[in-house]
Amino acid sequence: MASDVKHTRQEYGIREEAQDFPMMVVLSFIYVCNAGCPNCPYNNSDIREDYADALYMPDDLFKRIADECGRYGSMLRISGGGEPMLHPNAVELLEYAKAQGAKVGLITNGSAFAEGDLERLIAAGVDALEFSVDAGDAETYAWARPGLDWDTLNDNVRQAVEIRNRLGSPTRVVVSAINQEGVDVAEVEAHWSPIADKVQIRKYLTWGYNEDHSADATAYLPPEERIPCPWLFERFNIDSRGFATICGEDIAFAEKFANVHERSIKDIWHGPEFARLRELHLAGKGHEIPICAKCPDWKYRSWEYNYWKIMRDADAVKESRGSVGK
């Protein structure tokens, strides 16, 4: 857990690794899901209805993005408004991205892997499989992840670790749980730590749609200090239509301002839109940006405990256990 981690730093700005190209490109890959999780902002909004014509990211758009990310070794984080493994071409597309040189992090509820899917993904060298578990026991899981099966989840996480070790793949196997009312995160840690490489306890985010049911509202970035949000300096978000928005908090893409069909990711990353937003944040004026002014989750961003630290922590556990593919 992150209680002993410093979440701010002395100097802010684009990270060295993101000077040329975003470190992470987050894709709204799919808007179809097989779970009814009460903490999911897509279940608590009409966003999926708004994307009825674009429920799945088209193959050609994904490949356009993967080609560009591959040139810079950027991380493609496969996420969005549903379960990515329900995309009919998920495995083939992730294999394609790896073949182009992109890093790939898949966020999954662990329920929809067909026979052979895990083997193919891990053989391709997918960099991280992140299973959203949200529970340390079957009873809690039934409440937190309605529609899914506890035994299937456990089988697939264990199978992922077994395949990774057998193939000598570098894939990290991470599980995550939201620190929310009704979930005992100590039980989550106790159940999953012996199995996965890393247990990530997440803050409860409202995304502007959920009621706040956080079990730990301690801020990482004190709101009164108006510390810049790190997401503008490392991440890039694209929806299934190819639109970019200023921040992952904008899950409805209400503030979209460019499309990767018309401009490259690199051009947008270095364009005037992002420059203006970053300048405002660096000047302590991020609250002048409409979506930032009403962001309920800015305080939970961290400049130090981030995706990259989670990957390092997972690697350290793999090494300590003597797992192959370190």
Word description of this protein:
- The protein is α/β, with parallel strands linked by helices and 326 residues long.
- It is built from eleven helices and nine strands.
- Strands 6-5-4-3-2-1-7-8-9 form a nine-stranded mixed β-sheet, with helices on both faces.
- β5, α7 and β6 form a beta-alpha-beta unit.
- The longest helix is centred in the middle third of the chain and has 18 residues, at 150-167.
- The two termini are 22 Å apart.
Give the topology.
Elements: E1 24-30, H1 47-50, H2 59-72, E2 75-80, H3 90-99, E3 103-108, H4 117-123, E4 128-132, H5 138-144, H6 150-167, E5 172-178, H7 185-192, E6 198-202, E7 235-238, E8 243-245, E9 258-259, H8 265-269, H9 272-282, H10 290-293, H11 307-320
Parallel strand pairs: 1-2, 1-7, 2-3, 3-4, 4-5, 5-6
Antiparallel strand pairs: 7-8, 8-9
Helix pairs in contact: 2-3, 4-6
Gross geometry: globular
If you average the pLDDT, what whole number results?
Answer: 95
Class from secondary-structure proportions: alpha/beta
**Cα Rg:** 19 Å
Largest sheet: 9 strands, mixed
Question: Quick one: how many beta strands?
Answer: 9
- Count the helices. How many? 11
Stretches where pLDDT falls below 50 for ≥5 residues?
none
- H/E series: EHHEHEHEHHEHEEEEHHHH
Which percent band covers the strand fraction?
A: 5-15%
